[in-house]
Amino acid sequence: MTTPITKVVFPVAGLGTRFLPATKAIAKEMLPVADQPLIQYAVQEALEAGIEEFIFVTNPTNERILKAHFEANEDLEATLAERGKTAELKVVTETTLADNQVKFCYQDQPLGLGHAVWCAREFVAHEPFAVILPDDLIMAAPGCLKQMMDAHTKYGGNVVAVEDVPRELTNRYGILDVDQDDGKVASAKGLVEKPAPEEAPSTLSIIGRYILDAQVFAHLDKKMTGAGGEIQLTDAIAATIGDVAFHGLRFDGQRFDCGSMNGFVEANVAFGLKRSNHPDELRSVLKNHI
Ligand code: UTP
């Protein structure tokens, strides 16, 4: 029997330097893809997977913006109701999370993803938990985290989402040193963060979805820095291999790297075509640009 996962951590305290000046005043996760901010897709994916508690690792400025997005906006709701805009009212009310479902903690300095997750340790306590990086946007049915939950029920331990990347890009990802691989699920004897292509033990890379055993905090507590001088989550997960089962799941779906300009624009096209009320019109407009 595996412990059910009810908590998700959203590390959203990065600087978002690749999206300046858009990220000067707001978090990258509030940037919209089609008609919703990135963080909204992440919350929906977590809800679908059965998550009940949402822990945001952020800073005071972005906390205000995230809170405003997820709490009820009574004035807006009253205006929409008065004007008979029932569809819009439904969209707005569906974004509301209950106060007791939402927790905020601060990462005072962007010392790395591992450090951001460590900042959430008191809310996570001793339970296994999920981590979603909202800028890795995934189009999938069922959602990626739901697929991982099913794998976790089977294997327990740490489960991460993985995909093969071109070898020249291994220096952007955590890479598996593969032990066994059945084409869907891989186990690893080690993990290497951002290896140079010629040194990468494989091309199987971790993308922004994790289900982690709370033992990871014992390693994050040591605040060891790794690639890029940052406290890396991958290094802490690697340190638990042997004590905690580790599996990488090749999820069914398409990932968009919304931390990069091209990935973000591609996501807007893909989600725009899916979510637009007039996709044919959008498709024909897009053709003008290609
Ligand atoms: P990125 O590596 O994309 O970094 O972080 P970034 O700061 O957001 O963006 P760039 O590279 O400067 O453009 C991946 C995820 O980890 C979070 C980010 O907010 C993002 O969700 N993160 C990263 C933190 O919360 N804290 C950190 O110290 C680093």
**The CATH class:** Alpha Beta
The main sheet comes to:
5 strands, mixed, barrel
In what range is the share of β-strand residues? 15-25%
How are the strands of the largest sheet arranged? 8-11-9-10-12
CATH superfamily caption: Spore Coat Polysaccharide Biosynthesis Protein SpsA, Chain A
Bound molecules: uridine 5'-triphosphate
Helix/strand-derived category reads: alpha/beta
Distance between the termini: 52 Å
Describe this structure in words.
The chain has 290 residues and is an alpha/beta fold. It has one domain (7-275): Spore Coat Polysaccharide Biosynthesis Protein SpsA, Chain A. It is built from eleven helices and 13 strands. The protein has helices spanning 38-48, 60-70, 74-82, 86-94, 113-118, 121-124, 144-155, 216-220, 233-240, 261-275, 279-287; strands at residues 7-11, 32-33, 36-37, 53-58, 102-106, 129-132, 136-139, 158-164, 174-181, 185-193, 204-212, 246-250, 254-257. The strands form three sheets. It has a five-stranded mixed barrel. Helix 3 packs antiparallel against helix 4 (86-94) and helix 10 packs antiparallel against helix 11 (279-287). The protein starts with 6 loop residues before the first strand and ends with a helix. Bound molecules: uridine 5'-triphosphate. The site of uridine 5'-triphosphate has 21 residues, from helix 5.
What attributes does this structure have?
single chain, 290 residues, alpha/beta, Spore Coat Polysaccharide Biosynthesis Protein SpsA, Chain A, two-stranded antiparallel ribbon, 11 helices, 13 strands, 24% strand, globular, binds uridine 5'-triphosphate
